[in-house]
Design a protein that fits this description.
single chain; 786 residues; alpha/beta; eight-stranded mixed β-sheet; seven-stranded mixed β-sheet; 28 helices; globular; nucleus; phosphoprotein
């Protein structure tokens, strides 16, 4: 008991030494936690649909501009509802970074069943489920229901959230903000079938009538009973356009109210290629909104390539909306920085070591598109078009990427410049290696976070460049292609063209949902390079094939992209009964110049694997995937040149690590030491450590921390540990906050232990009396019986 009290005093003393007392910390926590679903309860209080009188504020905002790394996505806001048009890979990450609240989404509209439109939908649905959102309505192509069934192969049952799918043939959808009409459009040049690539869905969205505002001052001038209960029916009447009579005088509604807003419309249309132009131009529903339409179209959003915009038929169709209609274009010709925080942190890391932390590619505006006679605006990330209260473009939120600002901010941090200079001196003064190591293999960390993509760390993906013309991917989470594109820029096709294989460790979404985009972009890259197309070797649990098969059968043809090697066949002692698989394994080893590609089951979910690559030149790279400390991995990785091991959680969270089947920092390091690995790179950090994880006492000259876009070769092993002091200086504020959280957690644990011990002592003190009572009671009964 005394020891626990001492520990409690010690923990409290550490907290106070940081200049913050427990009472001060408690004072800061007085604000109650936000209710993530309070908007639903507010909606229930508003009463029947349409009784609110229309939304006061409505705007559209560009989430992704249609560029190759981000696809095209649009966010629509009103005070009543939130909508998302298309959900490609990376959209959830962008919404999180730019504070577009995912938990408020009512509806997701999809213009086409193509991976560029739905690649981020599985992750978005899982996040919506975690937020507790009870229902989300999805509208789009007929394959949508089949897609939702397919993702259950890796997501499991989607219990806790109702996903209501509106087929494209359904009548209009109506809510508090607007009415949405779906318009199916079939290409004239494509076949139709179960997985119909010739079908796109356009959306016409008509805002509800907004009643005029009651003019209080005018009402007072006219002697109306403002401020009393009698004014309520008067306000209701004039807002409905009715005249009233007061003291024998008729007062017109327009005298007491501003004019009502009848509600403009906006159109979202995707035209993927020239085969859709004629059906769009001839569509009767569109024609009703062109010319002198009852509902003027304020904005048309075009998700269309430059070849479509240059077509005279499409240009004439745009002109028919009239000169007052604005046009927003989202396509690959739009150049915009989306992931600003990623650019910022990489610019600052580049100051520490420009080779290990290379700058990301900047994308200048591309060539001018065709000259159009209508008002056209190129998409930019976070560009807004406001429909209410006043129609206008709003550019105040548009992202501007100013590297010099990022550099100045870092240089002003205490001790940063000094620690960088000391790091460079230390690297120069260190012992020269016996022989200069080759540039290859080169390890490029594309995603180093866990669970969901966040603004600084994307989910799991590591590129191993075995040589200048051969590479291999270890895991492939959502947004992997986007990371590749931002890292390599215009050279991304060369990298994809040299990609020999992908290893998928297990079927959690953060490890494989980027695979389909890699496959599709690789086909495009091979065509641009003039190389013949051939399937990509994929080493994965056999369950991945079921997901690919389902998606292929119902949504989009993808199976011809893949030659599958079940990961279980690469375990030691595995019997391979299929000659076709044997040929694929031989091809894998030969193409990658590997002596061995070995897998083992690790301690995570079912069918989770780690792998070891043994090169013919002798080096060995081991990748843990997701796992708790694992003996099989230690044996497989014996004497590894490099171990890439997950370190999801900090030390002190061992119980949580067991619960989630992950490793802590020190556990990962100890695995590497037992393996006798020459070097250990820690990876797959919980997103609670967004910038940098907490450093463990076990860190030594053989351990490094992975960051997104970090590039490491074997010759960098002596340098990587020397980066830690400048990293600590760069992220000093974040480290201090994490240490404070850790101290508070330890204090709570001590208090809980103290309380538990006190309760135990009370029970022990009361136990003899209870025993005496139990022994005396039968005796007294016996006496009475006698």
């Amino acid at each position: 008991m005394w020891a626990l009290c001492s520990l409690l005093r010690s923990a409290a003393g550490r907290t106070m030494s940081q200049g913050r007392t427990i009472s001060q910390a408690s004072a800061r926590r007085q604000r109650p936690p936000k209710d993530p679903l309070r908007h639903l309860r507010t909606r229930e209080k508003r009463g029947p649909l349409g009784s609110s009188g229309g939304a006061n504020t409505v705007y559209l905002q560009v989430v992704a501009v249609g560029s190759r790394d981000a696809g095209a996505a649009l966010y629509v806001f009103s005070e009543f509802n939130r909508y998302l048009f298309n959900c490609g890979e990376g959209v959830q990450r962008l919404m999180q970074e730019h504070k577009l609240k995912v938990a408020r989404l009512d509806n997701i509209f999809l213009t086409r069943m193509h991976w560029s439109n739905v690649g981020g939908l599985s992750g978005m649905i899982l996040t919506l489920k975690e937020t507790g959102l009870p229902k989300c309505v999805l509208s789009g192509p007929p394959q949508l229901e089949k897609y939702l069934e397919a993702i259950k192969i890796f997501s499991g049952p989607l219990k806790g959230i109702e996903l209501a799918v509106r087929p494209h043939s359904a009548p209009e959808y109506k809510d508090e903000t607007m009415t949405v009409y779906q318009i199916p459009i079939h290409s004239v040049s494509q076949r139709r079938g179960v997985r119909d690539p010739s079908l796109v869905i356009a959306f016409i969205c008509k805002l509800h009538l907004k009643r005029g505002s009651f003019l209080v001052l005018k009402a007072k001038e006219l002697g109306l009973p403002v401020g009393t209960a009698a004014i309520a029916p008067i306000i209701a009447a004039v807002k409905e356009g009715k005249s009233i009579t007061h003291e024998g005088r008729e007062i017109l509604a327009e005298e007491l109210c501003t004019p009502p807003d009848p509600g403009a419309a906006f159109v979202v249309v995707e035209c993927p290629d020239e085969g859709f132009i004629q059906p769009i131009c001839e569509n009767a529903t569109f024609q009703r909104y062109q010319g002198k339409a009852d509902a003027p179209v304020a904005l048309v959003v075009h998700m269309a390539p430059e070849s479509v915009l240059a077509d005279s038929r499409y240009q004439q169709w745009m002109e028919r909306f009239g000169p007052d209609t604005q046009h927003l274009v989202l396509n690959e010709n739009c150049a915009s920085v989306h992931n600003l925080r990623s650019y910022k942190i990489q610019t600052q890391l580049n100051l520490i070591h420009p080779d290990i932390f290379p700058l990301l590619t900047s994308f200048p505006h591309k060539k001018e598109g065709p000259t159009l006679s209508v008002p056209v605006v190129q998409g930019e990330c976070l560009l807004k078009y406001q429909l209410r209260p006043r129609r206008e473009w709003q550019r105040d939120a548009i992202i501007t990427c100013n590297p010099q600002e990022f550099i100045d901010e870092a240089l002003q941090l205490p001790n940063f410049q000094e620690s960088v200079q000391e790091c460079r001196r230390s690297a120069q003064d260190g012992p020269a290696p016996a022989e200069k190591r080759s540039q290859y293999p080169e390890i490029v960390f594309l995603g180093t976070g866990s669970a969901i993509p966040m603004k600084i760390r994307n989910v799991s993906a590591t590129l191993v460049n075995i040589s200048s013309d051969t590479s291999l991917l270890l895991d492939c989470g959502e947004g992997t292609f986007g990371q590749l594109y931002r890292h390599y820029g215009d050279q991304v096709d060369r990298v994809l063209g040299s990609l020999a294989a992908v290893f998928v460790s297990h079927l959690h979404a953060d490890h494989h949902t980027g695979l389909l985009n890699i496959l599709l972009q690789r086909e495009r890259a091979l065509a641009s390079l003039g190389k013949p197309f051939h399937p990509l070797l994929v080493v994965a649990p056999t369950q991945l094939k079921a997901w690919l098969q389902q998606y292929h059968n119902q949504c989009q043809e993808v199976l011809h992209h893949v030659s599958m090697i079940p990961a279980k066949y690469l375990q030691v002692g595995a019997e391979i009964s299929s000659p076709a698989v044997e040929r694929l394994i031989s091809s894998l080893l030969g193409t990658c110049d590997l002596e061995e590609f070995q897998t083992c089951l690790v301690r995570h979910c079912r069918h989770a694997f780690g792998c070891a690559l043994v090169h013919t030149s002798g080096w060995k790279v081991v990748y843990s995937g997701d796992t708790m400390p694992c003996e099989a991995l230690v044996r497989m990785g014996k004497d590894a040149t490099l171990l890439i091991h997950e370190a999801t959680l900090e030390d002190g969270l061992e119980e949580e690590a067991v619960e989630k089947t992950h490793s802590t920092t020190s556990q990962a390091i100890r695995v590497g030491m037992r393996m006798n690995a020459e070097f250990i790179m820690l990876n797959h950090f919980s997103q609670r450590y967004a910038k940098v994880p907490l450093f463990s006492p076990d860190f030594n000259e053989k351990v490094g921390i992975a960051f997104d876009h970090m590039k490491v070769s074997f010759g960098d092993f002596p340098t990587v540990p020397k980066l830690i002091p400048p990293l600590k200086a760069l992220f000093a504020g974040d480290i201090e906050e994490m240490e404070e959280r850790r101290e508070k957690r330890e204090l709570r644990q001590v208090r809980a232990a103290l309380l538990s011990r006190a309760l135990t002592d009370d029970l022990e003190d009361g136990e003899p009396q209870q025993k005496r009572a139990h022994t005396e009671e039968p005796q007294s009964k016996k006496v009475r019986a006698q």
